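Supplementary Methods, section 5.1.

A reviewer requested that the exact input to the structure prediction be made available. We therefore reproduce it here, unchanged from the version used in the analyses.
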Amino acid sequence: MPFISPLSIPSPDPVFQSFSIGPLTIHTYALCILAGIIVAMFWVNRRLTQRGGEPGVVVDIVLWAVPLGIIGARFYHVFTHLGDYFYPGANLLDVFAIWDGGNALYGSLIGGAIGAWIGCRMSGIRLWSFADALAPAMLLAQAIGRLGNYVNHELFGLPTTLPWGLEIESDNAKFPAGLADGTLFHPLFLYEIIWNVVGIALLLLLERRFALRWGKLFALYLIWYGLGRSWLEAIRIDPTSDGFLGIPANVWASFVAIALGIVLFAVQSRRHPGLENSVYRPGRGPRVVEPRKKKGKGGEDAVTADEGEGSSESGVWTDEELAAAAPASGSAAPAKD
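The structure derived from this sequence is encoded token-by-token as follows.
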């Protein structure tokens, strides 16, 4: 048996892959994906509201983007691993068993983009404004989701003698034939987590330095993620993945992501060299409410905005807006909630 370094990464006990609550079976992989989605949603909401978006508007977009993203992720995986799901005696219902793992990021980008476009059209948010707000949050969600791959004993690379190699049981379906029990493998899930965290820092730095808007930050996300993923997929052990010209499908998808990112950045830089004036599409904006009156000190009418409703532009009532909205006969200074 090969020597196992004390720094090697053991795979979690399979018992942690799922647990039961009454008749329900909860899969850790699904919880990791859900946790990533929730964290990303809160961060995107914060980034959009800081740019003038109405608080909570991200929910209107997520309700479309997340379901279609999950559907796209699953079917992309199935179509690039047909041998895993279509063979004599196969249970075709396994095509929908996302809790067993097998959700492709590039499929989620395709499905999620369609859902985001629908959600943005309905909410009035610019698609590229949402994409820029999403870019670093997407990397964070992906990093959290990769913990699910670790729990499921999947997403590992070629054998390695590096001390931080990943321990994989020899009866794993993807364990290469002919290798000795105890062989260590590149922990691709960990490499991608590190790559994504570095990418978050880089995107935020570039965004602050160059005020990247109009989809340009999202373009850099595509380039960064595509570069990292193309290398990771090149050393990944995934014998059932379909490919073309001997190159795995995910490597081709990474090349496409890089190319799209470069084209998007070049086109948007030419079309929109200036700053973004609003995250809303022309003619749209935060909900507008009429100021209401309430009694101030001494019984005078004071003007205020309905709590939590926002104003015509920024979502926050300014002293000037309230003063302009106050009746000419009112002698008291405007008040704000």
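The chain has two domains: 14-271, 287-337. These observations are discussed further in the main text.
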